[in-house]
Design a protein that fits this description.
This protein is mainly α. The chain has a single domain, classed as Orthogonal Bundle (MetI-like fold), CATH 1.10.3720.10. The longest helix has 42 residues.
Length: 324
C-alpha cells in the first residue's frame, strides 16, 4: 500500500460513533478530575495535618524547640525507626482520662455549643423564612445584608460586643435611659455573653442553608393545606418544617462544629472562669508549652465531632435506601 493510501486513511474524518466514544471518555475524565480534586485537597489540608498532630500526641514533652521528643523519624535509619515504634505510648491520652479538668471542658463545650445552636436556629429560622417569602427583587439585598458581617474582621466584631455588654456599655446606658432598669446589668464575663457572641457570629451559617432550603420549597402545598382547612401553625409543622429539615441539619452542623472548639468568644466575652475545650487547648499549647498533651486534646476533640457526623450520615443513607 502506498504512502498516499496511508495519508488518506489518517486524514479520514471520525464517524459519529467514534465522536460519541471520544465525548464519553472526555466526560468521564472530567468527572474523575472533579472528584479527585476535593480528595487531594482533603489529603493535604486535613489528613496529613491530622497525622502530624496524632504523631505529636504520641511523643513526650522535652525542653527543646519544638518542645517535644520527635517520634517516627527516619533520621537514624530503619533500625532507629523500629526503636521509636517501641517507645510510642498513649501516656498523654491516659493523662487526659485521669485529670477531670479535660472531661469537664469537653462536656461544657458540647453543652454550650448545643444551647448556642438551638438559640441560633430559633433566631435564624424566622430570618430565613422571611427572606424566602420576600419579593424576588428584595432577596439579593437581604442576602447581602446577611453576608455583610463577614466583610468585617471576626475579632473586631467580638470586641465590639465588649463595648455593648460591659456595665457602662451601650446596652446598659440605653436601658437605664429609658427606665427599664435602675442599675447596670452584669452580662459581660458570663455565659449569657458567650451565647450572645456565638449566636451573633454564627447566625449567617444558620440562615444561608435554611434560606436555600426554604426558597426551593413549593409554597403551593401551603395554599392547598389552607384550602383543605389546615390552620397556619399546623401547616408549618406538617409541611414547611419537614421540607426544610435538610437546611436545619446543615445549619446546625455548621454552627455546632465550630462552636465546640470556639476560643475567641469565650476568652473575650466569657472571662477567665469560662471552661471550654478551645481555651484549654490554647493554654496547653501556648502557656504550658505542652504540645503532646495539647495534640491529644485536639485529636479527641476531632474524633468527638467526626464520629457522630459519620454515624448520622450513615443513618441518613440507610433511611434514603429504605425510602426507595
Amino acid at each position: 500500500m502506498s504512502n498516499e493510501t496511508f495519508s488518506s486513511i489518517d486524514a479520514a474524518p471520525l464517524t459519529a460513533v467514534e465522536k460519541s466514544a471520544a465525548a464519553r471518555l472526555g466526560a468521564a475524565f472530567v468527572n474523575r478530575l472533579v472528584i479527585i480534586v476535593p480528595y487531594v485537597w482533603l489529603l493535604f489540608f486535613f489528613l496529613i495535618p491530622f497525622i502530624i498532630v496524632f504523631k505529636i500526641s504520641l511523643s513526650q514533652t522535652a525542653i527543646a524547640i519544638p518542645p517535644y521528643a520527635p517520634v517516627l523519624g527516619f533520621g537514624d535509619g530503619v533500625a532507629g525507626f523500629i526503636g521509636q515504634l517501641k517507645q510510642l505510648g498513649l501516656d498523654n491520652y491516659v493523662w487526659l482520662t485521669q485529670d477531670p479538668l479535660y472531661f469537664y471542658a469537653y462536656v461544657s463545650s458540647v453543652v454550650i455549643a448545643a444551647i448556642s445552636t438551638v438559640l441560633t436556629l430559633l433566631v435564624g429560622y424566622p430570618v430565613a423564612y422571611g427572606m424566602a417569602r420576600a419579593p424576588a427583587s428584595l432577596r439579593p439585598t437581604l442576602l447581602m445584608l446577611v453576608i455583610l458581617p463577614f466583610w468585617t474582621s471576626f475579632l473586631i466584631r467580638v470586641y465590639a460586643w465588649i463595648g455593648i455588654l460591659k456595665p457602662e456599655g451601650l446596652l446598659n446606658q440605653f436601658l437605664l435611659g429609658i427606665g427599664v432598669i435602675h442599675e447596670p446589668l452584669i452580662i459581660l464575663n458570663t455565659y449569657t455573653a458567650i451565647f450572645i457572641g456565638i449566636v451573633y457570629s454564627y447566625l449567617p451559617f444558620m440562615v444561608l442553608p435554611l434560606y436555600s432550603a426554604l426558597e426551593k420549597m413549593d409554597y403551593s402545598l401551603i395554599e392547598a393545606a389552607k384550602d383543605l382547612g389546615c390552620p397556619p401553625t399546623a401547616a408549618f409543622w406538617k409541611i414547611t418544617f419537614p421540607l426544610s429539615l435538610p437546611g436545619v441539619i446543615a445549619g446546625c452542623l455548621l454552627v455546632f462544629i465550630p462552636a465546640v472548639g470556639e476560643f475567641v468568644i469565650p476568652d473575650l466575652l466569657g472571662g477567665s472562669q469560662t471552661l471550654m475545650i478551645g481555651k484549654t487547648l490554647w493554654n496547653e499549647f501556648f502557656s504550658n508549652r505542652d504540645w503532646p498533651v495539647s495534640s491529644a486534646v485536639a485529636v479527641i476533640l476531632l474524633l468527638l465531632l467526626i464520629v457522630p457526623i459519620v454515624l448520622f450520615q450513615q443513618a441518613q443513607a440507610r433511611a434514603q435506601e429504605q425510602g426507595r
